[in-house]
Design brief:
single chain; alpha/beta; Rossmann fold; 2 domains; seven-stranded parallel β-sheet; 12 strands; globular
């Protein structure tokens, strides 16, 4: 196979694009990442289009410059968070928006939709294979969730989080990318229910295990340290978790809460290493990239796991899953179970968690699979007349 260049774009959500790109480099693929702007987590990115607080016209000029200057230098495009560099959005503003936003939003949405069509058509005409990874709310739809899942994020958030316009837009966006992309990936099993039938589950691949040395500190003679790191309190079920912990404290249980919010990824990691246990999220139905990091560090995880989604996983992955099932109704009971667990048993659980990540979230194995998909698509292009 001739050398080729891969560009991952246009976000750094969860650090997954950056982790996959770095693993591909180690597997011999020339791979870069691009994001429209950095977020507070500050994952390392090769190209940041808007590194400063520029105005809307300058930001748009930079987007066009990237589309015509940076993107054409690559032979494979791997979109993430279910979108492209145009990053179109729903046609109507969220409920409760002011008059100006309600007037401007449809115009901007139409412009970005057309720009994305141009972006995709141009890449196809150049013969560039395209791939897309879905990571959560880029595909998750409120109406579908409410109709099919008794426990879900949609039952916890306000009307402006999911709405009819955003649900309809996500379906249009999924259909469009299905027409252009060679392969469709999802890092969450529930998304496979709303993605095309050919979509594939691919585990998170954002950390290198040799950089995340496990710290099995659960047997130290002190109260357990319980970590929780909400990016969105409603989505994660933070209030339910904090209330359960408060009730346990009033009942006489001793523990230290490590609440991680608003920190860079590097700062947050220092807190994770201090923890003994992570309680992740109560409504999404799967564990997040954060849970992978904590399990890699040798920290047992509690999270809500939707049992109906387990058949969508590799059979052995579902069987080996070390995450303790927890719901809004059982969170206090589950935390009490952990606090009362013999420390050697807790360490054994921590070691199972690390082994699970080593087997199922190895970025090199996932990068090799992804590289094979890229090269199959490139070979097919080169053989076609």
């Amino acid at each position: 196979m001739e050398p080729y260049r891969v560009l991952h774009l246009p976000t750094s959500v969860g650090g997954n694009p950056q982790g996959l790109s770095a693993a591909l480099r180690q597997e011999g693929v020339s791979s870069d990442t691009l994001t429209t702007e950095q977020n507070y987590l500050q994952y390392p990115v090769d190209i940041v289009i808007n590194p400063d607080a520029a105005g809307p016209l300058r930001r748009e000029w930079r987007r066009w410059s990237a589309l015509w200057r940076d993107v054409p230098r690559y032979d494979v495009l791997h979109f993430n968070f279910g979108t492209t560099l145009a990053r179109p959005h729903a046609w109507s503003a969220s409920p409760g928006s002011g008059l100006f936003k309600r007037l401007v939003y449809p115009v901007r949405a139409a412009y970005l939709w057309l720009l994305q069509g141009l972006e995709l058509t141009r890449a196809r005409r150049r013969g560039v294979p395209m791939f897309v990874t879905y990571q959560g709310d880029d595909a998750r739809q409120g109406d579908y969730s409410l109709a099919h899942f008794p426990i879900c994020i949609a039952r916890q958030v306000g009307a402006d989080y999911y709405n009819a316009a955003s649900d309809a837009f996500k379906r249009r966006q999924i259909q469009r990318l299905d027409k252009y992309c060679d392969r469709i990936y999802s890092v969450n099993p529930d998304l496979l229910r709303v993605l095309p039938a050919r979509a594939e589950f691919v585990p998170y691949s954002h950390i290198f295990l040799d950089e995340w040395t496990p710290v099995y500190a659960q047997e130290e003679s002190r109260p357990l340290r319980i970590a929780h790191a909400p990016s969105n309190r409603q989505v994660k079920g933070t209030d339910h978790i904090l209330k359960a912990l408060d009730r346990l404290r009033r009942r006489g249980f001793e523990f230290e809460l490590i609440l991680v919010e608003g920190m860079s990824h590097a700062q947050a990691r220092q807190q994770y290493e201090r923890a003994d246990v992570l309680i992740d999220q109560l409504f999404a139905g799967w564990y997040g990239g954060l849970a992978v990091e904590l399990m890699a560090l040798g920290k047992p995880v509690l999270s809500y796991i939707r049992q109906e989604d387990l058949p969508l996983l590799p059979v052995e992955m579902a069987r080996e899953l070390p995450v303790l099932q927890v719901t809004e109704a059982t969170v206090e009971q589950a935390l009490e179970q952990v606090l009362g667990m013999p420390r050697p048993e807790l360490v054994a659980w921590a070691r199972r968690s690390r082994a699970y990540v080593e087997r199922w979230h190895d970025p090199h194995a996932i990068a090799r699979k992804t590289r094979a998909d890229y090269e199959e698509a490139l070979a097919r292009r080169r053989l076609s007349p």
